[in-house]
Amino acid sequence: MRSKRWDGKSGCAVEVTLSVMGGVWKPVILFHLMKRKRRFMELTRLVPNATQSMLTSQLRELEADGVLIRHVYPEVPPKVEYELSEFGRSLGPVLLAMREWGETYRGYQSTREDS
């Protein structure tokens, strides 16, 4: 495991969760891995606003945290796939709740703009 960015002094479990899946791209990456394995280029197409280096960095951190598994196949050119680990799949309800909240918020914002 990589060293955590949180100091743990607050004892807040939300802080721990955010240290693992926080940021702009990690939840999006995790959401796209919920249904099936994905290759790196699939993820770059699904998350077009993230640079390839940022995507690589985020994937490495998620792998180091045990949330996803990286499979490298001995082929030429190399084939690499990412999938959620069993533990990573436990984030499914959190990600679905985030999506639901985002849809609700988008509707809330549009009604505010109309008034």
Q: What's the SSE blueprint?
A:
Blueprint: H1 13-21, H2 26-33, E1 38-39, H3 40-46, H4 52-64, E2 68-73, E3 79-84, H5 86-89, H6 92-114
Antiparallel strand pairs: 1-3, 2-3
In words, what does this structure look like?
With 115 residues, the chain is an alpha+beta fold. It has helices at 13-21, 26-33, 40-46, 52-64, 86-89, 92-114; strands at 38-39, 68-73, 79-84. The chain has a three-stranded antiparallel β-sheet. The longest helix has 23 residues, at 92-114. The radius of gyration is 16 Å and the shape is globular. The model has no long low-confidence stretch (mean pLDDT 90).
Strands ordered across the widest β-sheet: 1-3-2
The radius of gyration computed from the alpha-carbon positions, rounded to a whole number of angstroms, is 16 Å
| Structural class designation | alpha+beta
Separation, N- and C-terminal Cα atoms? 49 Å
**Residues in helix, %:** 55-70%
Strand residue content: 5-15%
Query: Given the C-alpha coordinates, what overall shape results?
Result: globular
Mean pLDDT: 90
N-to-C order of helices and strands: HHEHHEEHH
The largest sheet, given as strand count, sense and whether it forms a barrel, is:
3 strands, antiparallel
Uncertain stretches of 5 or more adjacent residues: none
Strand elements, count: 3
Number of helical segments with 4 or more residues: 6
In brief, what are we looking at here?
The chain is of the alpha+beta class and 115 residues long.
